[in-house]
Amino acid sequence: MLAGLVAVLLLWVAWRLSVRRARKAAEATRRGGRLLSLTGRVLVGAALISGVQWLALAHPNASGWAKLAALMVPALFASWVLVRALTVVSNEDQLRGRRRR
């Protein structure tokens, strides 16, 4: 009976270890997929912005306002993203809006 109990315990431990390994592998796969997805979106967005800017600046009949808008609008979005990413927020600011349970 003791041998059977030890065998069951060993099977349970082996099962738990395999579950942990599988979770780690799945999480690593998700992280890699997120990175590739983010990289793809960044490249497509940059190509789109560069294409619009090139069209606005290279077109012979483009007005000064169109050229200014083609340069300023993407710069404003980029600035907004950088400021949001680099702004330090304390934990107190985040907890004020939430209820504590």
Mean pLDDT, as a whole number?
Answer: 81
Strand content: under 5%
Q: What would you call the structural class?
A: mainly alpha
The major pleated sheet works out as: none
Helix content: over 70%
H/E series:
HHH
Low-confidence stretches: none
Write the layout of secondary structure elements.
Elements: H1 2-58, H2 64-86, H3 91-96
Helix pairs in contact: 1-2
Task: Describe what you observe in this structure.
There is one protein chain. The protein has 101 residues and is mainly alpha-helical. It is 85% helix and 0% strand. Helix 1 (2-58) runs antiparallel to helix 2. The protein is elongated, with a radius of gyration of 27 Å. The model has no long low-confidence stretch (mean pLDDT 81).
Compact summary:
With 101 residues, the protein is mostly helical.
Features:
single chain; 101 residues; mainly alpha; 0% strand; elongated
